[in-house]
């Protein structure tokens, strides 16, 4: 066999051309989004072109704050102070005041809050007076006779009697010297407080045997003792304007109800009035009735006029009562007969 020698391998490369892959329907979604966007653009351009300036402002305001519009019309904010709500204020529209219960305290809550604040102030004043009592060489020996508590009327300070240390002599309204010293020590503290004072005198239930209830002297005695305490406080610096009332309770409000004759019931009570009690006392005062004169003048117009007021003219109530009093068959002078007495 013929030797052909070395030979070279021949490699044939064949390139196969494949078909393009199917792209699916993604292009349809993109085309739909583009068409929708173009439609929205044309719609906005048409609205802008066919609207006037007022309508354009309304459309702009709606997109800024949709809550500011109702039925296509701009409405004002329902709040007194607008903190970023509706952007405008409508003209010629009545605004009704609407209270939001979640944001505005009710009157009862405000009143309760004021009571709590005042109670805390009363507690602070009690601590201040207690500190003054403990630090004072004059008051500290009488700590057992000084009672401090908070009542419905305010901060109450009571100076009570003891068997060996009474504030007054029996049946007297003259302060003992140590009782006067107590009031003089308390006066500078009370004078610095803005609360007005109610000074009340109390007695025990002891009275002379056989005395009628109408002749009970405890009423007058308690009133005079309260006034003696008022006088001592004013002499020590408490101004007159701070005194709200001075009253005598007699033996009607004993400190020990089960033992009305106990010496501790004889006491002077000084109350720093809270706002409710002070307003109640101030409410007792009022403008007196004007006296009407026959010619139509009032007491302000004719303060120096000495003529009789209209209440003395014929037909008035006073004149009618005077005629009844002067009649022969009046019930004032004629005593009842025997049958009427034993009826």
From TrEMBL:
Residues 278-290, 319-328 have a biased composition (Basic and acidic residues). The chain crosses the membrane at residues 26-48. InterPro entries: Bact_OuterMem_StrucFunc, MotB-like_N_dom, OmpA-like, OmpA-like_sf. Residues 278-343 are annotated as: Disordered. Keywords: Cell membrane, Cell projection, Cilium, Flagellum, Membrane, Transmembrane, Transmembrane helix. SUPFAM superfamilies: OmpA-like (SSF103088). It comes from the Bacteria. It is found in: Cell membrane. Its main location: membrane. It is a single-pass membrane protein. Residues 155-276 form the OmpA-like domain. Belongs to the MotB family. This is Flagellar motor protein MotB. It comes from Bacterioplanoides pacificum.
